[in-house]
From TrEMBL, chain A:
Residues 2-78 form the Lipoyl-binding domain. InterPro entries: 2-oxoA_DH_lipoyl-BS (IPR003016), 2-oxoacid_DH_actylTfrase (IPR001078), 2-oxoacid_DH_E2_comp (IPR050743), Biotin_lipoyl (IPR000089), CAT-like_dom_sf (IPR023213), E3-bd_dom_sf (IPR036625), PSBD (IPR004167), Single_hybrid_motif (IPR011053). Residues 113-125 have a biased composition (Low complexity). Signal peptide: none annotated. This is 2-oxo acid dehydrogenase subunit E2. Belongs to the 2-oxoacid dehydrogenase family. Its cofactor is (R)-lipoate. PROSITE patterns: BIOTINYL_LIPOYL (PS50968), LIPOYL (PS00189), PSBD (PS51826). Gene3D superfamilies: 2.40.50.100, Chloramphenicol acetyltransferase-like domain, E3-binding domain.
From TrEMBL, chain B:
This is Dihydrolipoyl dehydrogenase. InterPro entries: Class-I_Pyr_Nuc-Dis_Oxidored, FAD/NAD-bd_sf, FAD/NAD-binding_dom, FAD/NAD-linked_Rdtase_dimer_sf, Lipoamide_DH, Pyr_nuc-diS_OxRdtase, Pyr_nucl-diS_OxRdtase_dimer, Pyr_OxRdtase_I_AS. GO terms for molecular function: dihydrolipoyl dehydrogenase (NADH) activity. Binds 1 FAD per subunit. It comes from the Archaea. Its EC number is 1.8.1.4. Coiled coil: none annotated. NCBIfam families: lipoamide_DH. It is an enzyme of class 1 (oxidoreductase). Pfam families: Pyr_redox_2, Pyr_redox_dim. Residues 4-320 form the FAD/NAD(P)-binding domain. Its cofactor is FAD. The active site is a redox-active disulfide bond. The lineage of its organism: Archaea, Methanobacteriati, Methanobacteriota, Stenosarchaea group, Halobacteria.
Length: 468, 459
């Protein structure tokens, strides 16, 4: 059996450097012989061998900075030729050991519920506010797994709630930031007044989502960067006569925030294609007269988009945390110009609905948006968005992707255009489709494929729609 | 070297005796082996109160949302401890300066009796004295098997210097030190469990005084298990596993990161060679003294913790003054009552007799109480728990008082004065107290005892 030399309880600070290995791999060592020296800012400590044998492997190099966590493996001692566990294997056995070493007594109660088991980092090494520590214990969250946003990078209670909701744990106590009143600390308010910052524009990271002085500072810094990059000659409306001004709030502000974030973060690329809709209109008419199915062109287009998404799953996807995630459900968002601005209700599982069902659903969603009676749930779960800019008499639109989706399709207005068929030029009814893609996840070729497939279905609807 | 008064030990009892001796014209030398200020300044009263107020601020911030203030403090305990050390340093420097200003000769070293008139200091010097005051203090008691030299076993001194709050702390002992330190660490977010051999905390106090404290530590998440004695411990991986046993032999185990043993204090007499000075100790090792602090040796006095209960800094200081004045041939002041305080939240403070003790002394006590829940000031500080109780003899003279609640440690002083000077309930009741203050509660308690309280129902 090999024996792992681990970092013992040292009382050193969080990080240190492995200053030297006192023995080389292959050397014989005896128990309690000093094998390495660790040094933190304040002090150094000798690491002793835990048994007699040969130093088989070291996991940390001389000069390497290491997190000084109790139990962290440094080296392995054993008999010559014995096989050495990898760091991953050690991590696993450490977890098992932990599980086994828990005493099985009734009164161990709260005393064993601490959270430093999994990661190897002792929980006392993780910076967290007292409130966060208590909360972590209560909901059994491993502090070492949570990112801290508090003072000194400490984990706050909010961080724990965020971590839980990100991990699908019910959080219950996260507080939604209300936009009517901006929450800010007294210091932040003073600072904002001093520096003429509109608090509503600053994102709060404090308790209850309050804007802190740090937030104001960060905002000022980013504003300064922005200005120096591209400050137009007349950047401000200072000398002009403002007749009306509306501070963005509510849904408008959410749209603004999300879309500007999308535009900022996603490299948008647009492609367009003009497609004849003569056939599709005929199909719509036949459905109405022969089958008594009252569908609009929009409904048919939504269905066909669903088909394309089924064929090309890379479009039915999210892009988050550097990951392109293909999604099974095809839930198509349909942008509507509601009374409070652009709203994108979602039609879930587009392909699982009959055309009339789809049509009914779209109409009722649109109505709800217009009547301002939609629910937040109506807007959730979209995997792709379609926006009809034809209603504004536009042919094409460079639409911004609804994050975290990876593409958006704009449907232009119907118009007559010259179409060449077999050497003859004729006027046909066409629509220009503009597809904007997130270039991180998709390429121009994908764009081409999407529009090609869509054109195929729109121009030859019989391929996919039976009984018409 | 020769001196009229030799003081051994520079804690509150010792330095007070030295300074008062010098003020009374004696030629005084003070031998201190460690840090001037003793336990109190360096590892006891002051550091613990510093951390209680530091963590009290944390607690106030965390509960401030009741008042519409939202903050979530992060505590760098290392920095808080450094701040505390700064406070301690300023105080110890101050005490050393006071000693010098009063002409006390400070001798650095460990003193050992050679005979009834001589001590040897470990640097080889000998000091001949006419009178000596022993003020060598006390140190924490270890439990069998729980030596403080083991890494995870803390004494109070170690706990007060901790730079990190352990995720899980087991406190052995629910006396005042255990309760104060549990409060500190619970406020820092540690998961604190207390085991106490007896069936109640703070055994010298009545349960109506300790109940509010129990409630408040429970709110902090401290779990107290009574009737359990810690018997042994071992390390199991990263856990320290402590075994406890009830009187019926039932065992439990606790897995924690650190263990604080706070089960009492014992006198420091080892190495003093008391026999050479003919100074005798009782069966617990405390030096035996009369009311002036005189030991079994005519010219040797003992004050402070080394002379036994009450082991409190202010008691030691008073004893130091009494001993010094006795040596100087004066008539020393008599203490009629020694206040005692537990600095938990709420605080408990007592002085003199409680109703039962009064009865035991043949007094048919007049008792008055005023609850802080009826105090406007208490409500504005969000600490409206507890009460003030006054106990008076039949002739109306105040003989004692008990307080549990906000600022009890400060409020007890007025009752202390009343007991010391034999002030009557009438006098307390008729004294105009500022409104709105917590101290009004004392006045109201006096009126209640007299059956004419304004702000609480009379019996
Ligand atoms: C955690 C804690 C909190 C406390 N809180 C409070 C409180 O809030 N209020 C309160 O009233 N009391 C409190 N106390 C108790 C208080 O600290 C003691 O009652 C007080 O310090 C006793 O004073 P002393 O002078 O008798 O002894 P000490 O303060 O113990 O001083 C004795 C001194 O003698 C020195 N010495 C010992 N032997 C020799 C020798 N042979 N030669 C030379 N020097 C020697 C020691 O180094 C030491 O400095 C607390 C104690 C602790 C541990």
């Amino acid at each position: 059996m090999v024996d792992v030399i681990r970092i013992p309880k040292l009382g050193l600070s969080d990080y240190g450097e492995l200053v030297s290995w006192e023995v080389d791999i292959g050397d014989t060592v005896s128990k309690e012989q000093v094998v390495a020296v660790l040094e933190s800012e304040k002090a150094s400590a000798d690491i002793e061998s835990t048994s007699d044998g040969v130093l088989l492997e070291t996991y940390v190099e001389t000069g390497e900075e290491v997190a000084i966590e109790v139990g962290k493996p440094l080296a392995v001692v054993g008999e010559e030729g014995e096989s050495v566990p990898s760091l991953d294997e050690l991590d696993e056995t450490a977890e098992e050991d932990d599980a086994q070493s828990k005493p099985e007594s009734e009164t161990e109660t709260a005393a064993t519920q601490s959270d430093d088991g999994q990661s190897g980092a002792s929980a006392s090494d993780v910076k967290a506010t007292p409130r966060a520590k208590r909360r972590a214990r209560e909901v059994e969250v491993d502090l070492a797994a949570v990112d801290g946003t508090g003072p000194q990078g400490a984990i706050t209670e909010d961080d724990i709630e965020r971590h839980r909701s990100e991990n699908g744990q019910d959080s219950g106590s996260t507080t939604e930031r209300s936009d009517e009143e901006v929450k800010a600390t007294p210091r932040a308010k003073r600072r904002a007044t001093e520096d003429g910052v509109e608090l509503a524009n600053v994102k709060g990271s404090g308790p209850e989502g309050a804007v802190t002085e740090d937030d104001v500072e960060a905002y000022l810094e980013s504003a300064a960067e922005g200005e120096s990059e591209a400050e137009p000659a007349s950047a401000s409306s200072g000398d002009l006569t403002v007749t009306e001004s509306h501070e963005l709030s509510g849904i408008r502000k959410t749209i603004a925030d999300r879309l500007s974030q999308s535009a900022r973060e996603k490299p948008h690329v647009m492609g367009t294609r003009e497609v004849s809709i003569e056939q599709l209109e005929r199909v719509r008419d036949r459905l109405r007269t022969n089958h008594d199915v009252d569908v609009s062109l929009n409904d048919l287009l939504l269905h066909l988009v669903g088909r394309v998404l089924d064929d090309l799953p890379e479009f039915n996807a999210h892009f988050e945390d550097g990951t392109h995630k293909f999604i099974d459900e095809i839930n198509v968002g349909y942008a509507v110009d509601g009374s409070r601005g652009l709203v994108v209700p979602v039609i879930p599982d587009v392909l699982e609905r009959s055309l009339s069902e789809l049509s009914e659903m779209r109409r009722s969603l649109v109505q709800r948006v217009i009547d301002d009676e939609f629910e937040p749930a109506d807007l959730q779960g979209g995997t792709f968005t379609v926006t009809n800019v034809g209603v504004f008499e536009m042919d094409v639109s460079y639409s911004i992707i609804n994050p975290p989706e990876v593409a958006i399709l704009a449907i232009g207005r119907r118009k007559h255009a010259p179409v060449e068929r077999n050497g003859e030029v004729d006027f046909e009814k066409v629509i220009t489709f503009s597809l904007t893609i997130d270039h991180r996840a998709l390429d121009g070729a994908d764009s081409g494929a999407f529009l090609d497939q869509l054109a195929e279905y729109v121009e030859h609807p019989g391929v996919v729609l039976d009984a018409v | 070297m020769e001196t009229e008064l030799l003081v051994v030990g520079g804690g509150p009892a010792g330095y007070t005796a030295a300074i008062r001796g010098a003020q009374r014209g004696l030629d005084v030398a003070l031998v201190e082996d460690g840090l001037i200020g003793g336990t109190c300044l360096n590892h006891g009263c002051i550091p613990s109160k510093a951390l209680l107020s530091g963590t009290g601020t944390v607690h106030e911030m965390e509960t401030a949302s009741e008042m519409g203030i939202y903050v979530e403090p992060y505590v760098d305990l290392g920095e808080m401890v450094a701040w505390k050390d700064g406070v301690v340093d300023r105080l110890t420097d101050g005490v050393a300066a006071l000693c010098r200003q009063n002409g006390v000769e400070l001798v650095d070293g460990f003193a050992r009796f050679v005979d009834e008139r001589t001590v040897a200091v470990d640097d080889g010097r000998e000091i001949e004295f006419e009178n000596a005051v022993l003020a060598t203090g006390s140190r924490p008691i270890t439990l069998p098997g729980f030596g403080f030299d083991a890494d995870p076993i803390w004494d109070s001194r170690r706990a007060l210097a901790a730079e990190r709050a352990p995720p899980r702390l087991l406190v052995v002992g629910a006396g005042y030190i255990g309760m104060e330190l549990s409060t500190i660490f619970a406020r820092l977010g540690s998961d604190v469990t207390v085991v106490e051999m007896l069936e109640e905390p703070l055994p010298q106090y009545e349960s109506d005084l300790t109940d509010p404290v129990l409630e408040s530590v429970a709110e902090l998440g401290v779990d107290i298990n009574f009737g359990e004695a810690a018997t042994n411990w071992h390390e199991d991986g990263r856990d320290v596993v402590v075994t406890t046993e009830t009187e019926d032999g039932e065992e439990s185990t606790y897995s924690v990161d650190e263990v604080l043993v706070a089960v009492g204090r014992e006198p420091v007499t080892a190495g003093l060679n008391l026999g050479a000075a003919a100074v005798e100790t009782d069966d617990r090792g405390f030096v035996e003294t009369d009311e002036h602090g005189r030991t079994t040796a005519e010219n040797v006095f003992a004050v402070g913790d080394v002379a036994g209960e009450p082991m409190l800094a202010h008691a030691g200081m008073h004893e130091g003054i009494v001993a010094a004045e006795t040596v100087a041939g004066e008539d020393p002041p008599e203490a009629r009552a020694v206040p005692a305080v537990v600095f938990t939240a709420p605080e408990i403070a007592t002085v003199g007799l409680n109703p039962d003790e009064a009865r035991a002394e043949g007094i048919d006590p007049l008792v008055g109480e005023f609850p802080f829940s009826a105090s406007g000031r208490a409500m504005t500080t969000r600490e409206a728990t507890g009460f003030v109780r006054l106990v008076a003899a039949g002739d109306g003279r105040v003989v004692g008082g008990q307080i549990v609640g906000p600022e009890a440690s400060e409020l007890i002083a007025e009752i202390g004065l009343a007991v010391q000077e034999g002030v009557t309930l009438e006098a307390v009741a008729e004294t105009i107290h500022t409104h709105p203050t917590l101290s009004e509660a004392t006045m109201e308690a006096a009126e209640h005892a007299l059956g004419r309280a304004i702000h609480t129902a009379n019996r």
